[in-house]
Amino acid sequence: EVYFKNLSKQKQKEVMEKNGNNHKLRVCVATCNRADYSKLAPIMFGIKAEPQFFELDVVVLGSHLIDDYGNTYRMIEQDDFDIHTRLHTIVRGEDEAAMVESVGLALVKLPDVLNRLKPDIMIVHGDRFDALALATSAALMNIRILHIEGGEVSGTIDDSIRHAITKLAHYHVCCTRSAEQHLIAMCEDHDRILLAGCPSYDKLLSAKNKDYMSVIRVWLGEDVKTRDYIVALQHPVTTDIKHSIKMFELTLDALISFNKRTLVLFPNVDAGDKEMVRVMRKKGIEHHPNFRAVKHVPFDQFIQLVAHAGCMIGNSSCGVREVGAFGTPVINLGTRQTGRETGENVLHVRDADTQDKILHALQLQFGKQYPCSKIYGDGNAVPRILKFLKSIDLKEPLQKKFCFPPVKDNISQDIDHILETQSALAVDLGGTNLRVAIVSMKGEIVKKYTQLNPKTYEDRLELILKMCIEAASEAVNVNCRILGVGISTGGRVNPREGIVLHSTKLIQEWSSVDLRTPISDALHLPVWVDNDGNCAALAERKFGHGKGIENFVTLITGTGIGGGIIHQHELIHGSSFCAAELGHIVVSLDGPECLCGSQGCIEAYASGIALQREAKKLHDEDLLLVEGMSMKKEEVVSAAHLIQAAKLGNRKADSILRTAGTALGLGVVNILHTMNPSLVILSGVLASHYVNAVKDVINRQALSSVKTVDVVVSNLADPALLGAASLVLDYTTRRIY
């Protein structure tokens, strides 16, 4: 770690020497509208805070300077930025021709500005037609371009503009792993791509707990409560203006019928925007008692409004990107954001062609609370971007280089070639210990924390949060980027909701417990929860013997007996989340009583508790200890003593172990006849003691068609933690688990 830090300092020193020790990087930030300013402002603040490295020039153009859209250049002045140039570039009109003329007007005016400012680099954001004019001007005038949010996929003409800017840009800052891979596939130079996350998340993730009620009252009225209002933001789709206006009309009709207080923001400056405003006025939205129609809301206040809304509706990228940070429900209408990565808070209504569809979506989403999602950032984008800017060598050739196929396998790197390892926080709730670990994508346990598991719900949850927060903080120091939290726990779990339904008797006060919500809210990370047996199966599928195997079963042999079933590469949960309770397969009608209340279960014969019970019986009858064994007076009799006695020739102990192995083997035979897996993996501390007995029972009792099954002992040192990690690593990018 010290080596890499010194390497970073040395590289920055070398770059400063190459650029000239006294030369500050002159950065021109050009902002076109309220949306791109919300992404650029955090970078501008960062640049302004380091005057020893940077000189900042701010150019304002586009809809910032239009009264109908709130004259939003004022918020830039309120943020105490000096605006060096204002360019009126919007040609008013309602069709595609007006957009083209606006680009042309910007191209006419920008050369004079850039000649005067002479920036070393221009920062351009996103996919607006104004941004295309900026990038075109800078490229033709041999000015380096840093493009923010390239590589993403949404819909309509925006994709074409975004990718065109990518081809003009010299450096790229992207927000997601998929966007990075798209840039690589587009032949961009790997060394000039930075996976930083979205700059707006640096502000979002620290904003929710600020005073928000005053903001809500200002914009929606004194009588509005949190989670009881809607934010609507819808823009025209320039490739299908007529349909998008009709969809906006249907949206307003649905909102009127839904009868909730609603904040409606005016659309962007695009072909069709004026027609949408006319639809609003035709329906009387500006005077309707349930609606507040506004041209602009300052970004800090907008964050508070969407964070505490009952729902957001429309087709703005804000809905599928930023709002996920708060878990606010979103209804995404139409095709404008098709292709965007989204959290599970987003419900897509692709064909929003009737009022009833939109109204039904509102009924489904309004008032829900989803896990917070950090797909687009972790709150540390700006430091990465500033570091990236400092690394730019102005003496390098300006001409772009394209990396044509074949493309080498590459993981995103920062400017010091220090890999940020994609990792998960894994939590294992055992009967005795509570463990938290940072686990890498390759299954390496980078750091592990262990505490005794508290006996009460409140103390246990408090300790989980404390350990997770500590581990998440440490992840930065060990260069790991946490994608989410996976939790392995005993008992019956509803993984869809992240709730422990019923616990085992080994963990007290642990039924009907919502684990997902408090942990997700505290860490701003997605959270997955599952049964420990299922987690063991997932660990084998990703890291162990089950890798690449279509159908296999994992049996955990420890304090209890559990397991997980993988069928056609997928984990089976069952209709009531009770699948793979393998320890409670009955192998004898009159066997010993099990903790579940039944008799003759595998767990009643072969679990650590069962072996301990039999060991105590032998010890009470002075039949346990044999030559070579000794026990202290206060020492508790355990299953380990029974195993040791059997190894030293105690026939009764050996008979108990053989009976336990036979019971487990009969259970495995039942599984083979039911599921017909190609592999059985025995996991846990007792696995090596049972494997031969299980194979013998299969040879004696199983049908010939399943006798060829492989029975192996797991080679994973910590399947519970690895399984909890795989919940995150396998499903982070899925919308629904």
UniProtKB/TrEMBL annotation:
Location in the cell: Cytoplasm, Cytosol
UniProt pathway: Amino-sugar metabolism; N-acetylneuraminate biosynthesis
* UniProt binding sites for Zn(2+): H584, C594, C596, C601
User: What biological process terms from GO does the record include?
Assistant: UDP-N-acetylglucosamine metabolic process
Q: Where would I find the UDP-N-acetylglucosamine 2-epimerase domain in this sequence? A: 53-390
Keywords, alphabetical: Allosteric enzyme, ATP-binding, Cytoplasm, Hydrolase, Kinase, Metal-binding, Multifunctional enzyme, Nucleotide-binding, Phosphoprotein, Transferase, Zinc
Q: Which GO terms describe its cellular component?
A: cytosol
The protein's Enzyme Commission number: 2.7.1.60, 3.2.1.183
- List the molecular function annotations (GO) for this entry: ATP binding; hydrolase activity, hydrolyzing O-glycosyl compounds; metal ion binding; N-acylmannosamine kinase activity; UDP-N-acetylglucosamine 2-epimerase activity
Q: Which residues form the active site?
A: D532
Q: So what does this thing catalyse?
A: UDP-N-acetyl-alpha-D-glucosamine + H2O = aldehydo-N-acetyl-D-mannosamine + UDP + H(+); an N-acyl-D-mannosamine + ATP = an N-acyl-D-mannosamine 6-phosphate + ADP + H(+)
Q: Where, in this chain's numbering, is an N-acyl-D-mannosamine bound?
A: R492, T504, D532, E581, H584, E603
Q: Which CDD domains match?
A: ASKHA_NBD_ROK_GNE (cd24060), GTB_UDP-GlcNAc_2-Epimerase (cd03786)
Q: Which InterPro entries match?
A: ATPase_NBD (IPR043129), ROK (IPR000600), UDP-GlcNAc_Epase (IPR020004), UDP_GlcNAc_Epimerase_2_dom (IPR003331)
Tell me the superkingdom of the source.
Eukaryota
One Pfam match, by short name? ROK
Quaternary structure per UniProt? Homodimer. Homotetramer. Homohexamer. The hexameric form exhibits both enzyme activities, whereas the dimeric form only catalyzes the phosphorylation of N-acyl-D-mannosamine.
Record family assignment: In the N-terminal section; belongs to the UDP-N-acetylglucosamine 2-epimerase family.
Q: What is this protein called?
A: Bifunctional UDP-N-acetylglucosamine 2-epimerase/N-acetylmannosamine kinase
Q: Which organism is it from?
A: Aegotheles bennettii
Gene designation per UniProt: Gne
